[in-house]
Design brief:
Helix content: 40-55%
Shape: globular
Strand content: 15-25%
Strand order of the largest sheet: 4-5-3-6
Radius of gyration: 19 Å
Number of strands: 6
Largest sheet: 4 strands, antiparallel
Length: about 200
């Protein structure tokens, strides 16, 4: 297989892309991927790899764990590609939200360990911010912004509002606000034709 890396960009995922078991097959097949997960386990003093591969899912989906798990998985995949394709020098690196930190580590702007510490701290701070100001977010797939703004207006109540927060890309918009309002908006969005409504 021939890949023209001089015109290839690598884009790393953000929170919401996690899935139970991610990276398990990669680590089983490639020692460098397993070493990447092992390095994270040693740094944290607990088995992030076991949590990522076996769950429980609610713990993996806790932002404190989700962010490091995605970062480690991204770097493990990158390391495998780098070994398999010695001439790998992508034209560009980018990331969505958390993925920006993965891109920075791949570029060499951060070491793997510094990036991992930063990602863990980022997750802890985001969790704390959510505890201090409870709310929620959800990604809505395949519903345009004008329709979603109507949904948010209908779901909002006195003291419980929800609004469009982020236009991620064509077909994916994030809403945020009071948790009950976000939950109402998710149901209304599905009824209005959204393909999926995923809590973040």
């Amino acid at each position: 297989m021939t890949i023209n890396f001089s015109t290839t960009a690598f884009i790393f995922p953000g929170q919401g892309s996690q899935s139970l078991g991610m990276g398990r097959d990669l680590a089983a097949a490639f020692p460098v991927a397993k070493e990447t997960f092992d390095e994270a386990d040693a740094l944290f003093g607990f088995s992030l790899s076991k949590l990522t591969w076996e769950g429980p899912a609610d713990e993996l989906n806790d932002t404190v764990n989700t962010q490091p798990a995605l970062y480690v998985h991204s770097l493990a995949a990158w390391r495998v590609l780098s070994l398999r394709f010695a001439d790998l020098k992508p034209a560009a690196l980018a990331g969505h939200s958390l993925g920006e930190l993965s891109a920075l580590a791949v570029s060499g702007a951060l070491t793997f360990v510094d990036g991992l510490r930063l990602v863990r701290t980022r997750g802890q701070l985001m969790k704390r911010a959510g505890e201090l100001a409870p709310g929620g977010m959800a990604a809505i797939l395949n519903l345009d912004i004008p329709e979603l703004e109507k949904v948010c207006a209908e779901a909002s109540r006195e003291g419980e509002s929800v609004q469009v927060a982020n236009d991620n890309c064509l077909g994916q918009v994030v809403i945020s606000g009071a948790k009950p309002a976000v939950e109402r908006a998710m149901e209304l969005a599905k009824a209005a034709g959204a393909k999926r409504a995923l809590p973040l």
